[in-house]
Amino acid sequence: MAxxxxxxxxxxxxxxxxxxxxxxxGLIGAVAALAAIGGVTLLLVAAGASAALVLLIAVAAAAxxxxxxxxxxxxxLAPLNTRPRTGREALIGxxxxxxxxxxxxxxxxxxxxxxxAEPDPGHEQxxxxxxxxxxxxxxNGLTLRVRRAExxxxxx
Length: 156
What we know:
By secondary structure, the protein is an alpha+beta fold.
């Protein structure tokens, strides 16, 4: 039984390291805490500790790990809510200016470069015009799906 307890503690440590490198919202950390508590409990039982002592230590360890997860919850969940800063996902929501138009596509000046753009089919709107400000809704390859910018989006 002692071997199983040691194995559970090792699994708990590995899961803590995994939680540090993956943003799972604390799920892996909670499983790691349960594995470590189970491992300590099995080691205490194998050592011949009384049931009351084992229960007391298990409850204290569970309360400690649960409170630590609650305290660190904001820091654990913060990466899940951040907006992308690089890549094509970061273009969504940016405002650009229509520079030239063809039949179905436009060229939009956005963040210092010209992009191919198409009107977003999800928004009912009139045709785009040159000089008009547009907002990026989606990025499809190297083509932006845009819609006309509203007044509140133009004023910082």
